[in-house]
Amino acid sequence: MGRKAKFNDGVLVKKGPGKKAKKQGEPIIPVALKDNEGPKKLSRHQQLRAKKREEKKKESKEKQVNNKNKNKKKKQISKYNSDDEESEENDSIDEDMEGESEEVDESDNEEEVTGFTDDNKSWLKPKQQSKSKKQVVEESEDDEDNEEEDSDNEEMEEEEEEEEADNDEDSDISEEDDEYGVSKDDEDNEEEEAEDDDELPIEKESKKLKKEMAQMEKEAEEELQLNIKDQEKFEFPETYDIEQLTLQDVQQRIRDVIVVLSDFSKLRDANRSRTDYLELLLKDLCAYYSYNEYLMDKLMQMFPLNELLEFLEASEVQRPMTIRANSLKTRRRDLAAALINRGVNLDPIGKWSKVGLVIYSSQVPMGATPEYLAGYYMIQGASSLLPVMALAPQENERILDMCAAPGGKASHIAAIMKNTGCLFVNDVNESRIKAVVGNFHRMGIINSVITTVDGRKFPNIIKGFDRVILDAPCTGTGVIAKDPSVKASKDELDLQRCFTLQRQLLLAAIDSVNAKSQTGGYIVYSTCSILPEENEWVVDYALKMRNVKLVETGLDFGTDGFTNYRNHRFHPSLKMTKRFYPHTHNMDGFFVAKLKKISNSIPSDADKVVVSEDEVSNDKKQSSSEDEAPKKEQMTNGKNNKQKRKAENNDSSSSPNKKQKRENEDKKDKSDNKSPKNKFVKKKQFNKGSSASPNKKQKSENDDKKDKSEDKSPKNKKFNKKKQFNKRPTKSDSSPVKGNAEKKTGTNASPAKGKAQYKNKKNFKKTK
Amino acid sequence: MKRLSEQRNKILFEKLAKYVGPNVKVLIERPDGNYCFREKKDRVYYLSEKLMKLSDTFTQQQLVCAGTCIGKFTKSNKFILQITALNYLAPYAQCKMWLKSSAEQQFLYGQHVTKGGMGRISENTEKYSGVVVYSMEDLPLGFGVASLSTAECKHADPMATVAFHQCDIGEYIRSEKDLL
């Protein structure tokens, strides 16, 4: 959560150059961007060997054509390669070569025979002749080569072969091309010469030049194609084996993959899908930044890849230390002067805050200066000033900070309130609340009540606050720099736990606010996480479950909240929330949303969020003492909206299942005491309306439900219960139809009987 | 939160009077509403009555602190002021002592004040009266008991202790957990 009271650790300002000041290493240019230098120049010996290899290939081709003595040759080659039988090899090779030449001769003869017998011999003849000539030449060369080979040291060869193995494929191809090209050229030239005997020498020259130019162009183009191919080449690793790679290799690969993904259709390996690439990237990122895969996956879904890298890098670097001047005891200018005297290098945090200071360097520990001890300032992140600014507390208000430890934001609120009004500071953790006590006394805050209550139960104890700030416990993905353990430790279950708790807390926070407050009625929800699950989704949930609307936070920077995230479509007003990222705003990752409570009633169902206008007006009329209010309301409702209610009544009576369903839903949704409450309300309504017609009673039900669910405290509950049964017995109603029928009898029944009935009903429900 | 008993009330006010003299009245009768002392688990809190009423909604276990904790009663029923009371002692203090900046740090680590470290002292300080200790920039650092009167101080040895240490603001860090 990043809000631990780090009085000692967080305070030290490093003297040396920070991580950021580190010298940049040599730039690592991705393979794809490197200039290709073309094929390597081979040494003379290598060239010779390459030639030989080609010739051998040609031979083998010819042999395939001839299809004779294949097996023998193979054996010989294998022998040739083995070290053991040198002498034998040599002999055999000699024999072989002889054999080969014989074979070739034979084949030539055969070919000649076929050529002559053919009908086309007139034009076939010269070519075959040339071929045979070539072959003869090659044979002679072969012989020479073989002789050379014999003299060569075999071990040397093998080594070289290994070395060349890489170059072989490329260089072979290119050389072959070149040779063929040249030979073709020569032939062409000869032909042309033969054709254009009558041309002038200068014309011949020009033609030749043109040809050469064309040839050059062709080659250049081919080379270009080759280069492009090389550039594209990011070889997808066959197996993922992170241990074999150094960290730099991994980094290189991350960049390569991102390059590929940036222009996927062009640079991709045809056999690999985008998911393959993304998986590889995910694994690499996890390895390089030591995140767990779940969290990295979440982050990858949130950010585009370039931004993701920026975020990850920024999360490795500590944010600059910031302090907040305590306006209760000093002014920022005086504090800055005092600190500069102690050798602190500081600056105002920015135009947006009048109390923030950034500490660049300090010769004394910032958490132990006499100024700190005297409560002149508080060490607190820049981002934690934001929710308080969004809350905009006023003097003489009643304000609640639900999850306060270590009290940075709460003390900021108290300072803005100038120690007036009443500030309730709550945190569930008893050990952390001690930090709040210490800080508050140090800062000289006297208007606070510090408690340790589970925030979810807070509205049961006290409500009617003008403003509530909820800095909910979260996974802390925005403050990874502060607490790197987040990277490895948070998984799906943690996240789920977090946002469930956040939802419950936010609902509790909303419930504890008084919508009719003169000055406020605001709730600020903030987290130091950047995951939408903990932010937009939670707020969206609250929008559905309570009568609240989003309002502008009043912060003029930060990026807008998401309205679309993957498959989620949030309420469009979520654009008014603000997000802050370490890489764009140089403060901790943060989320701030400001809600305004519209009405104190709690919609019993998500469908009923939209409150009709007359109901809202009723809410306004409602006096603060809630016992009187329902009566009045019933009167007005009953008279004005008879027709309307009838329709509703019919609806509800026609579908008993619906009600049951609703109850179940209420139970599910963990605003703890909600469901039992609703039951009571229903009962109460029946009681009161018993003198009126059954229809009316039903009609008023919905309204009452909303209004009365306000008083949630256990005291009130009990009170209501007693009141109901003393007044009159009731029949409530898992099925409204039944309820209607029984109500008439219920009106005449004695109180005692009513209680009994109630008990029965309870049992009935249980069994159901 | 409960009212202090008569006896404890007396002990408390006697103690406070040592430091602030007749200004104790000012603590009770304030222009911004009535303030009162309340006791919870032997600790004494000073808070406005409005706040006190609101804090009554919480149970003993839930309530950690309301207003300002100024000290605690020991088992032998003596009252000990805590550093948290400094906010109220400093403005009304009768006897004051200012420390040189070189001696500040020593005092903040719990040492007594020596003559050498003392910069100034208010005129009419009597022996064994409570003094509030300030830095030369009028930053309240803590409080203690004068071991010598003003007159005696003038002739004292530089190493002689002029004030015994009782509380200093370094305790906010050194013993945060013991504050409550």
UniProtKB/TrEMBL annotation, chain A:
Q: Does the keyword RNA-binding apply?
A: yes
Where is the region Disordered?
A: 1-204, 604-768
Where mainly found?
nucleus
Give its localization.
Nucleus, Nucleolus
Keyword check for Transferase, yes or no.
Answer: yes
Q: Where are stretches of biased composition, namely Acidic residues?
A: 83-113, 138-200
Q: Which UniProt keywords apply?
A: Methyltransferase, Ribosome biogenesis, RNA-binding, S-adenosyl-L-methionine, Transferase
Q: Cross-referenced InterPro entries, in alphabetical order?
A: MeTrfase_RsmB-F_NOP2_cat (IPR049560), MeTrfase_RsmB-F_NOP2_dom (IPR001678), Nop2p (IPR011023), RCMT (IPR023267), RCMT_NOP2 (IPR023273), RsmB-like_ferredoxin (IPR054728), SAM-dependent_MTases_sf (IPR029063)
State the similarity comment: Belongs to the class I-like SAM-binding methyltransferase superfamily. RsmB/NOP family.
Concerning PANTHER family, the annotation shows: 28S RRNA (CYTOSINE(4447)-C(5))-METHYLTRANSFERASE-RELATED, NOP2 YEAST -RELATED NOL1/NOP2/FMU SUN DOMAIN-CONTAINING
Q: Identify this protein by name.
A: 25S rRNA (Cytosine-C(5))-methyltransferase nop2
Q: Which organism is it from?
A: Nicrophorus vespilloides (Boreal carrion beetle)
From TrEMBL, chain B:
Q: Does the keyword Nucleus apply?
A: yes
InterPro entries found in the cross-reference section? NIP7_N, Nip7_N_euk, PUA, PUA-like_sf, PUA_sf, Ribosomal_synth_fac_NIP7, UPF0113_PUA
TM spans, by residue?
Answer: none
Where would you find this protein in the cell? Nucleus, Nucleolus
Q: Where mainly located?
A: nucleus
**Residue ranges occupied by any PUA domain in the UniProt entry:** 95-170
* Coiled coil (residue ranges): none
In terms of Pfam families, this protein maps to: pre-PUA_NIP7, UPF0113
Q: Which SUPFAM superfamilies match?
A: Pre-PUA domain, PUA domain-like
Q: Does the keyword Nucleus apply?
A: yes
Q: Sorted alphabetically, which keywords does the UniProt record give? A: Nucleus, Ribosome biogenesis, RNA-binding
Q: What does this protein do?
A: Required for proper 34S pre-rRNA processing and 60S ribosome subunit assembly.
Q: Which family is this sequence assigned to? A: Belongs to the NIP7 family.
Q: Which PANTHER family match?
A: CYCLIN-DEPENDENT KINASES REGULATORY SUBUNIT/60S RIBOSOME SUBUNIT BIOGENESIS PROTEIN NIP7
Q: What subunit structure does UniProt give?
A: Interacts with pre-ribosome complex.
Protein name, please? Answer: 60S ribosome subunit biogenesis protein NIP7 homolog
Question: From which source organism is this entry?
Answer: Nicrophorus vespilloides (Boreal carrion beetle)
Lineage, broadest ranks: Eukaryota, Metazoa, Ecdysozoa, Arthropoda, Hexapoda
